[in-house]
């Protein structure tokens, strides 16, 4: 009987390294990772788009290899990269639309996420980015290329055994529902959450029909505690915004219920709800426990509202911050978050 182990290490305040061995069941393996979603996981797909939702310029990427901005919405790596790195697949998960993408990278996984996207097609339309339907179209194109590279049988094996991660929803609630009147005039929060889950269901069925079997659906983080939302809606004290967090929790509960029920209806599949809300909220509420000093502001600019082109200067020590800009986390925080997610949820895919 053979077991595969991936060693995952977490680094705490006193530089104490605690390592966990994540066991993969006998005769199981993860040949590739595919990521879909928004700016939390985009590794550069927006660079060639005519949209303001792109960050292929400094100071983004200042701590990336060589200090080069790549279109990642952080100072360095993002969750997509840490997923493949900690699983021992490769160091980075390249954007599918990267013009320098090499054929061999297709075999171990690529990224289709687009910053500014959401479950709601209106969210992607407003941001002028690649919708989930558009990301599925790119995935279909990818499958054709993969088949040409490795043949039909190997292609089917890769698709069936890989991990598929969908990370989105925050833009739907903060930007589409609460910031413009169109959706709010037709839906209350529960019915809008139902609408988003319906879009998630369609996406899962599309992926399943294309050969995916191990699919992770990430919950929405505590968006009411984002620095931008604290500034815009948190009052003079810049408190976390309760109605935003409550909307995120309601959606998450519905997405989790869908994942549990639908997983039994798709033969040979593993549909896993991934909790990011509680993991990140604990870090925000207890920053010093995790080696951070500042949890209510980003490193970029004043830390209160700046994102993308408004990020013209940065703090002196981004490792003290949970947030890089007013919406996205620092590389350090993302590494911690992905570590916790893998420890909690990896076994659920087998």
TrEMBL record:
Coiled coil: none annotated. SUPFAM superfamilies: SGNH hydrolase. Keywords: Signal. The keyword Signal applies. One of its GO terms (biological process) is lipid metabolic process. Residues 1-21 form the signal peptide. It comes from the Eukaryota. Gene3D superfamilies: SGNH hydrolase. One of its GO terms (molecular function) is lipase activity. One of its GO terms (cellular component) is extracellular region. It holds the Pfam family Lipase_GDSL. Belongs to the 'GDSL' lipolytic enzyme family. PANTHER family: GDSL ESTERASE/LIPASE EXL3, GDSL ESTERASE_LIPASE EXL3-LIKE. This is Zinc finger protein. It comes from Solanum pinnatisectum (tansyleaf nightshade).
